[in-house]
Design goal:
The protein is α/β, with parallel strands linked by helices. Helices cover 30% and strands 21% of the residues. It has one domain: TIM Barrel. Helix 6 links the parallel strand 8 and strand 9. It binds iron/sulfur cluster (SF4).
Length: 230
């Protein structure tokens, strides 16, 4: 059983497949508590119902959409992830999995979207900081990241960037990982309004030009605002 917050049809808003019509399976439950999490109903206040794999597959296939995105929350929390991925790929779906890359499992997919969380995510000021220490301990798992980068063929690495100093942190982290081609590294502005994204996006584009990384939009926020099911 997998706890699912929502299943919906939209376009992929982020990453190298941005703009691609896709069905999203958003699982609920996360081992992190990012300060700026844009899906708190899967992390800080997890919602959703426990669903059997065959039920989820049935609902997703009904959309007749070739692209499926498994997102969260943290999909890798669930051992049943492998069965879900196998069944979706057996039905010829292109499968992207989005993860913070703190828990390793080997599952079939077409694109693995790794998003290790920088220190800007740690919730020191939220709820008296009660999740901050655990978040800080768990947010970067070098061994897990290394295994994902070595064992998965198609991946992208997406960083949520808030301030220029985050770029130094990214460089330090990359130096401790197996080499990653620059075109697979994406910088995405932190922000939940189109205005915030535009403001951060402008200097982030300059950083992309400097380092040769890709700029990552958040089309779902630009088009619909920070809403569920889009
Ligand atoms: S890892 Fe993702 S789902 Fe979990 S708290 Fe952070 S932003 Fe939210």
């Amino acid at each position: 059983m997998i706890r699912v917050a929502e299943i919906f049809h939209s376009i992929q808003g982020e990453g190298i497949l941005a703009g691609t019509p896709s069905v999203f399976i958003r699982v609920s439950g996360c081992n992190l508590r990012c300060r700026w999490c844009d899906t708190e109903y899967t992390s800080w206040q997890p919602e959703g119902t426990m669903r059997a794999v065959h039920e989820i597959v049935h609902e997703v296939l009904a959309y007749r959409c070739p692209y499926v995105v498994l997102t969260g929350g943290e999909p890798f929390l669930y051992p049943e992830l492998a069965a879900l991925c196998q069944q979706l790929r057996a039905a010829d779906r292109h499968l992207t999995i989005e993860t913070a890359a703190t828990i390793y499992r080997e599952v079939p997919c077409d694109l693995l979207s790794l998003s290790p969380k920088l220190s800007n995510s740690t919730p020191w000021q939220r709820e008296g900081g009660r999740f901050a220490r655990r978040h800080e301990r768990q947010r970067i798992q070098l061994e897990v990241l290394g295994r994902f980068l070595t064992n998965y063929r198609d991946y992208q690495v997406k960083f949520v960037v808030e301030q220029p100093s985050d770029l130094d942190e990214i460089q330090m982290l990359l130096a401790r990982l197996p080499p990653i081609p620059k075109e697979r590294i994406l910088l995405m502005p932190q922000g939940v309004t189109p205005e915030e994204l535009r403001e951060r996006g402008r200097w982030l584009v300059e950083a992309c030009k400097q380092f040769g990384y890709r700029y990552c939009p958040r089309l779902q926020i630009e088009l619909f605002g920070n809403r569920r099911g889009v």
